[in-house]
Amino acid sequence: MKVGLVSPYDFASPGGVTDHVRYLAKALAHIGHPTQIFAPSSRRHADSDGTIFHRIGTPIAIPVNDSVARITLSFRLANQVQSIVQRERFDVLHFHEPLMPAKPMTLLRLSTLRPYLERLHRGIAVSEPARTFFSRYFPDFPLRIIPNGIDTSVYRPGLSPIRHLRDDKVNILFVGRLEKRKGLGDLLRAYELMRSRVTNARLIIVGDGPLRGSAESFISRHRLPDVVMAGFVPDFVLPRYYDSADIFCAPATGSESFGIVLLEAMACALPVVATEVPGYMSVLEPGKDSLTVRPKSWAELGAALVILARDPELRRRMGAAGNEKAQRYSWSSVASQVVEVYEEARAAARGLVESHVHDAV
Fold first, then answer.
1. How far apart are CA 71 and CA 329, in angstroms?
2. Residue 135 CB neighbour total at 10 angstroms
3. Is the pLDDT reported for residue 59 higher than 70?
4. Least buried of 40, 67, 168, 315, by fewest C-beta within 10 Å?
5. Model pLDDT for residues 297-322, shown as the tens digit of each residue
6. Is 12 helix (H, G, I), strand (E, B) or coil?
7. What CATH number does the domain containing 21 carry?
């Protein structure tokens, strides 16, 4: 079938939804479903990895959950896409986060959204917490849980580590946007505590964002040794950072619907230290592939890092368990599940048409 993937997010800016759309498009095409992408872009030529890309709208910055999302409103996107849709004759249109930015406004005007929602035939949530949130407002809408995917041919152990990071130090890796909800401040405090007990530890921070300056200031004021601020790292280099690490740390404070970076780390056979936010807990098995702590508890975070830093065998066992689990999240598996939902949506749409014809007769 011919598929159109529609995203409200700036396709030129790194982000979880953008990565999801790009990888899903490739996976769908690989199993015989030609796919095109619709999204706004702050650059004229966005990297769509070979997939036909339609630049729709100009993204604007909107505050969302202690972050800033660069989006075009999905309602407006739908109108702009219409002429292309009529020309291309897609079998399925897949809208990613169709209620954005209604979600950060807590869906204050639900009555205005219901007619729009009624034009959708099926829904996908990446985790149980995501489905629970949506179902709270739209309890009758059919939703199926299909997790995010990872490219297990790219994220795997035994790649080429970054040479100057492979020495006698225990490397702790953070990957994410440098913003409040990702918990970087808690991680820096936890690392400070850890260094008083494990003197051969190193913290590697991959990512950029509005808190970079304050993070660098904290590192300087507290004279934290062995902190590497790697900044933005392109996708083709990122797996090498995972391969250079010994422990992956995800200290988010909340508002995570899924833990894609956790899966990337696990696919690279890294043990995980993470906070007990719902989206992360839908992926992790504490004690088996991870150690988990309460959100915003930097003392607990530091203690968990110390445990893993001092126990190479525990790191090995947890890393192996995580790697085994990550194989279930390959993009080929995810794409096959998504196609099943597409078939259900097409059947539901045909049923509505037949019902309308019957009523007219």
1. 27
2. 14
3. no
4. 168
5. 999 999 999 999 999 999 999 999 99
6. coil
7. 3.40.50.2000
Residue pair 263/283 in contact (Cβ under 8 Å)? The answer is: yes
Pair 57, 94 in one domain: yes
> How many CB atoms are closer than 10 A to CB 136?
9
Q: Is the pLDDT of residue 176 over 60?
A: yes
Report yes or no on 214 lying in a domain. yes
For residue 282, pLDDT over 80 is answered with yes
Please check whether residue 154 lies inside any domain of the structure. no
State the DSSP code for 141: S
The total of structural domains in the chain comes to 2
The rounded distance, in Å, linking the Cα atoms of 190 and 294 is 13
Decide if 339 contacts 293 (C-beta within 8 A): no
Burial of 44 (0-12, 13-18, 19+ CB in 10 A): exposed
Q: What pLDDT shows up at residue 4? A: 92
Gap between the Cα atoms of 259 and 276, Å rounded: 11
Expressed as residue numbers, the domain containing 247 is 163-329
The half-sphere exposure of 339 on its side-chain side, counting CA atoms within 13 A, is 19
To which residue do tokens 């280099």 refer?
237
List alpha helices for 67-205, DSSP H: 74-88, 110-117, 128-137, 184-195
Task: Using alpha carbons, select from 248, 4, 16, 272 the residue that is nearest to residue 126.
Answer: 16
CA distance 268 to 260: 13
